[in-house]
Amino acid sequence: QVQLVESGGGLVQAGGSLRLSCAASGRTFGNYAVGWARQAPGKEREFVTSISASGGRTYYLDSVKGRFTISRDNAKNTVYLQMTNLKPEDTAVYYCAAATYYSDLSGLGLPGQYNSWGQGTQVSVSS
């Protein structure tokens, strides 16, 4: 089993930036894909981005392309989500998730492909 701990959330003004981190433990980190999802109040959880095990392939939700960048440091067992030009509609709880049976999700992934989740970190963007 994989344990995931997110950090880096906070309150930022529109146009600002945040970097989220997701520290993993429990299995060989470099063997599986990782993604980020978010859930805003009253809305369903949506997948925002994923990255392959090697870090060579990344995928993004259309609404965050060009603003969010996912990366990973397998030596540090950590995945990052750099968010720039943040908008009020980005306000949500952001969750890190591991797809330990997949080295590459070939997309954002489906809920059933992720088998470990972090506790989430709040991102709030004021207008």
Fold and architecture overview:
This protein is mainly β. Helices cover 0% and strands 48% of the residues. The protein is built from no helices and 11 strands. It has strands at residues 3-7, 10-13, 18-25, 33-39, 46-51, 58-60, 68-73, 78-83, 92-99, 116-117, 121-126. The strands form 2 sheets. Strands 2, 4, 5, 6, 9, 10 and 11 form a 7-stranded mixed β-sheet that branches. It has a 4-stranded antiparallel β-sheet with strand order 1-3-8-7, with no helix packed on it. A hairpin with a 6-residue loop joins strand 4 (33-39) and strand 5. The N and C termini lie far apart (40 Å).
Give a short overview.
This protein is mostly beta strands and 127 residues long.
Query: Unreliable runs, pLDDT <50, ≥5 residues?
Result: none
Distance between the amino and carboxyl termini: 40 Å
Helical segment tally? 0
Please summarize the sheet with the most strands: 7 strands, mixed
Average of pLDDT: 97
